[in-house]
Amino acid sequence: MAGDLIPQLWPFLAPHAGLLVAAVALDLAIGDPVYPLHPVRVMGTTLRIFENGLRRIGADGYGGGIALFLLLCVLWLTLLSAIMSVFALVSPWLAWAFHLFVLYSLLALGDLVTHVLRVERAVVSGDLPAARSAIGWLVGRDTASMDAPACRRAAIESLSENLTDGFISPVLWYAILGLPGIVLFKIVSTMDSMVGNRTPRYVRFGWCGARMDDAMNVVPARLSLPLVAFVALFVPGCSAAKSWRVGITQHALLPSPNSGWSEAATAGAIQKRLVGPIWMQGSLVTDVWLGLPSDPPASSHGDVIHAIILVAAAGILTTLLTAALLAFTGAW
Question: The pTM is what?
Answer without folding.
Answer: 0.93
